[in-house]
Design brief:
The chain has about 180 residues and is α/β, with parallel strands linked by helices. It has four helices and eight strands; from the N terminus they run βαβαββαββββα. It starts with a strand and ends in a 14-residue tail after the last helix.
Amino acid sequence: MKTKAVSFIAKSGTGKTTLLEKVIVELKSQGLRVGVIKHDAHKFDIDHAGKDSHRFTTAGADTMLISSSTKLAVVKQHEASPPVEDLIGTYFPDVDLVLIEGFKKNGLPKIEVHRSQHNESLLCRGKVHDPSLLAVASDEPLEIDVPVLDLNRPAEVACFVIRALGLSVNPLDISCKAI
């Protein structure tokens, strides 16, 4: 797999999406092309009743793509969720980095999001010792075997990702050098 990727994992409601929004802004400021994959355990539906796209999938289309001058979306029917590595290879060849929200059980590098008021234990350190854990983004100090990043400093998290994955960024930008 050529495209670099990292999964941000945590229990629901911990703040993965909020952190990722801010990390994306920081990564984009470094000149990186960023993609995102969001795992949804609730069987989302972006295909709304009454719209042409919904009519096509309701009629039985196995794959439906809608495109405009600024974006496109694909609705592809499948029996089971494809491996995240396949999704990256198929849909993200044109980005430098894919941030993944969820997919806890993949073997890709992971950053666990931890909030003292929300999480009693870590997913990757405790009952399970996940060797793909790179770091924990937390709002409190932790005594663990991987770096602990400040959850409230998304620039720090972004710079850690850049360094850990060996991404090339604008050499004139000194913002990651200061962290």
